[in-house]
Each structure stands twice: as C-alpha cells, then as structure tokens.
What we know:
Blueprint: H1 33-44, E1 47-48, H2 49-56, H3 60-72, E2 76-84, E3 94-100, E4 106-111, E5 116-123, E6 128-135, H4 143-161, E7 170-175, E8 178-180, E9 185-188, H5 199-207, E10 211-215, H6 216-227, E11 236-241, E12 245-251, E13 254-255, H7 287-290, H8 292-302, H9 313-325, H10 329-353, E14 357-361, H11 373-381, E15 392-396, H12 400-420
Parallel strand pairs: 4-7, 7-10, 11-14, 14-15
Antiparallel strand pairs: 1-3, 2-3, 4-5, 5-6, 8-9, 11-12, 12-13
Helix pairs in contact: 1-3, 2-3, 4-5, 6-12, 8-9, 8-10, 9-10, 10-11
This protein binds zinc ion (ZN).
Amino acid sequence: MSPAPLPPVVTAPEGYAGCGPLLPGPATDSKPLRQRVFEHVRATGIAARADVSRALGISAGSVTQLTSDLIAQGYLCETAEITRDRREPARGRPAVSLAVVPKAHRVIGIKLSDERHTAVLADFSGTILAEAMLPTPPVRKSLDQICDETAELVARLLAEADLPLDAISAIGIGLSGLVEPETGAVPWSPLLIGTDLPARDALTQRLGRPVLIENDANMLTLAELWFGAGRAMSDFAVVTIEHGVGMGLVVGNRLYRGTRGMGMELGHTKVHLDGALCRCGQRGCLEAYLADYALAREAATALGRNPRNQASPQAMLEALFAEAKTGNMAARSIFRRAGRYLALGLSNVIQIFDPELVILSGERMRYDYLYADEVIAETLALTLNHGRQPCRIEIHNWGDMVWARGAAALALSYVTDTALGQGAVA
Length: 426
Ligand SMILES: [Zn+2]
C-alpha cells in the first residue's frame, strides 16, 4: 500500500457536501492544474481561492488565473456564500467562494440487473436530479434486448427530469460479470446470452450518447469513493454479496482495475480443493458456498423441498431465512456455514491488501446471519494483526440507486477528463 497522504483541508461547509475523492491520489499527478483546481472545488462543494491554493500547494496568482479561465469556460462560478479562512477560524476572514456550475454537464448512471434496471441523472456537481426504474424479467437477454431495455430506461429518466437526450454528456453503465472498460467488451455476464460481446459499442449506437461500461462491484466501489465512506480514504475494499460475490478495491485513492478486467473476482478465489461446483464451471470457489444459488441448493435438501417447485433461488432463500428465524436448526446451520466461508474470504482480502476499511454491501446483507457479529469476529480471528488496530468492517445495506450513482460517477469522471484533462480543448 502507498503511504497514506496527509489529509488536505477539504472539509466542506454545511449544505455543500461536494462529491468525488477527497485525497490527492496518484491519478492526480498526470492531470493538468486546471482539472485539479476544478476537482478540488467539486470535492469540497464550495471553496475560497485561498483554500484551493493551500490544498493544492500552488501560488495564489496561479489559482486566480486558473479559476478565471474556469469561470470564463462556464465550469466554475463565484457564489455569494462566504467561507472562512480555516487557518484562522476564530477571526474568520470572509472570502469570495467558488462552486461548480451544475448545469455545465449532465450525466446518467445506470445499473443493469436481472430483476430491475435503475438509473440516476446527475449534474456536474454530482447532485442527483432524477431517478428511474424499469422492471425486467429475470432471464438472460440478447445484447439487442439489453440495448432496448436500457433505451427505455433512459427515456423514462429523461421524461422524469424533463430534459432532452442532447442535454446528457455521457452515460455510465454497470453490470455484473467480466467487463473490459478499455475496449468496452463483455467477455461474460450472467445477464447476457453469448460471450465476448461488444456491449459498449452497441449501447453507444443505441443510446446516441458516449457510453462507459464497468463491472457492477467496481461501480459500487466508485459510489463509496465519490459519495460515501471512502471519500477520504486512501485504501479500502468493497465486498458485495448479491447473486454472486463481487469485490472492488481502491488503492491510493483510485479504483484498482487489474490488467485484463478479470481482477477482484473474489467469488472465484478457491477456498476448497475439489470443493463444491461453481457456476463458473470450476470447483471450490468461495461463491459456490455463499451465493444465493449455493444456499438454495442446500436449502432444498435441508427443507425437503424440490427446487423445481420454487419460483427462483431468491424465493428458496427467503423460505430458508424464514425457517432460520423461527429456529430451524438445519436452516441456521446453512447460514452459519455460509457466514464462516464469508469470514474466510474477508480475512484473505484483509491479509493480502491490508485496507483501512472493508465495506460489506449488497442485497444479501439483510440476511443478518451473514454478517452477524460472530462473522466479523471470525474474520478478524483468521487475520494476523500482531497487536495492530484491526481492519474496520462496515455493513452498508443500500438499495440499487447507490450502484447507479457509482455509474454516474464513472460518467462524471469521463466528462471531466474530456473537458478539462490532457488533450482537452481549453
Ligand atoms: Zn467459480
């Protein structure tokens, strides 16, 4: 892990939460100064020129020049709000503040899922202007069908926000499976029929706006980095338990993506040699002991039910959870065993990456047997720490809209790079 950078002076005044990573990461090194100034103002929500100068370590003259350019280009504005000189809070010298011009750009963030797709529309300051949802049958779809459904969702969202399509600068889309953000290809996804699909190109063509695609666990991790608990954190991991087990990792304040879009597949790390069969075709994967289909498989045996009579693995899981709550020992033992495997997987993550925080997230978190205190205790017991402060583990039981916000962060990041990054037309 890189050494933790010193926290800059970036606490936002009340009412101006800001969005985006608060710490300067290695990603900022290659960014032009004007982009760093803009991103600092957006992260703090509102900032005086003196704050920008101090936080970025650049001269007051440079800040004046850069901010007047950004104001002229319509990205920043001066506000009537007053910030205080934070070095001398007692005297509180008033200063003219800067804020992002929200309507400079607008983006859409989408989470594609197997039961419903969700979307948010955000302005350039990261404020969510509208939300929309589209129920969808839980079957695998062709890329064409997914494009149609996504287009319908976008139409609903634009109607909700009362905006035309050309008001949108980019669309970020997260889905489960293997995703190559660079090429926009999807080698494999549980939502899609077929392999090696040119998903980004097809969606860009269908939607008529620039599209970015990303693995959904990375999406959720971006949501934590831009809007959540990870904003001021250099190194943290997000582990998701949904239909499968996913993971996202932030190293040095930046999302770690691996080389071939195949990293962070925690669900397919092996926890048992020649173990249970996983849906990936291999044996002994963590997911084969933890995902809903794995628990449903055991539930059928424990509850004496024919899995074919259940509507879905989720329905079987709900029945199992109800049984566990009423004291059925077999049902409880299934959750308990899943919890122990979860602890095993989490302890491996902590042992390898030594993050400051691990966030457990996803729909399954409401099955409290999976994150009982004993699971957290077991995780820490399986991890060496030699008297050091143990890694923090938090549970975030958030809905689908948070994933979509992460997708909006992806689009915001792209639009910011395009407008203000290297090679942008100033
Ligand atoms: Zn597997």
